[in-house]
Fold this protein.
Amino acid sequence: MKSRIILVACCLIVSVPSLASDLETGAQLFDGLGSYHRDFTASSDEARQYLDQGMIWLQAFNYDEAERSFREAARLDPECAMAWWGVALAAGPSYNHPQMDEQRAEICWDALQNAEARIDNTSPVERALIEALGTRFEMPYPFDDDSHLDQAYADAMGKIWERFPEDADVGMFYAEALMVRTPWQLYNIDREPAEDTPMIEALLEQVLELKPDLAG
């Protein structure tokens, strides 16, 4: 199990290359991505397929394809709040790309506004995820130092994990939120763990026990 935890953590350090650089290119459903499924609130079965695919790409750290899939879900179901949540999450800070720029900040902010405007059409855990993501962004965006936003989002995700301890996806995103606070600092050059690394490893162990075939 220990080796699996390290592998999951290390996946954040190696991005899957984007299949296309132009996010305006239409999305498509890919074969061979596994059988991941989450019961999203959506009115279209096809939109749900794109939501699932967006989650798979998120957990494979291919953020361009994730954003493209979530945008297609929003096109198919304009009232789907979680499609816009996915766009904001995919375009936001990540372990490999923690620094935001103006374009990404605007994308995230617009997507978050769309998600919040549709929040009444969500399940309790979906509402909580959207509200948590609302702590991750502010405008104007503090490009020089957004560490307080990283911490606020991690804290919010921790509270959701306390409420929904059987939801493996919540646990995975909580772990990622913790890691994004200190990108590239989980271990030092001598492979010694940082202060919070054992806690993150323990969290990932819980997640994998809940869902051994988690997409990530």
